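User: I'm curious whether this sequence folds into something compact or stays loose and floppy. Could you predict its structure so I can see for myself?
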Amino acid sequence: MTASPRFDIYALIHKALRAAMGEVLTAVGRMDALDDDDTSATLARVRALLKLARAHLEQENRFIHPALEARSAGASATTAHDHEQQLPVFATLDSLVMRTEQAQGHARIDAAKRLYLELALFIAENLKHMHVEETKNTQSLWAVYSDEELMAIRDSIVASQTPAETAEVIGWMVPSASPLERAFLLGDIQKKAPAKVFSGLLEVVHPRLSTRDWDKLMHVLAPLPAAA
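Assistant: Here's the prediction. I'll summarize afterward.
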């Protein structure tokens, strides 16, 4: 008999981050630096990505690393060090976004290229970092925590977010998840959140799913309240 898969606290948020990083990097690469509207819209997407990545880092520092250290001293050392190394990189990217925004003509083209290259390197390093978390850190967590305890940690992270932050995360997370992951995530939210909140999240998610994926999701979710 095959054992049920363990709860992976990193899986869905990391899928969301990978999707956001890939889309935003592509957008910067094809940005028309001589078009003010295109530049403004693309740089807004970069800022949103950096905000999302910063919030994720802070949540891991606040919730996941202390949980690791509480039952397995030293288990978070590698990724905690990575987080420290990322802080000046955020500052560099913030500066490059502003420089690109303020430059004109060929100076903006040069600034946009520098931003693209630095953002690509930031993403490359994050992909490696997330792999360590999903392998080394996950095994450490599974060794000392039950799935119920890990889901409680996840719930604490969600509770620390504003409604707007939750909607932003869900908006990236659900389309990047597999149908089974999507059904588990939204089914769990449906059980715990007020109907109005859940309906609001579905409104965020619906336009980001194909008709086929939306139909699959509706098939497995519990019937929605009539008022929703």
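Summary: Residues 72 and 143 are 9 Å apart (CA to CA). The mean pLDDT is 95.
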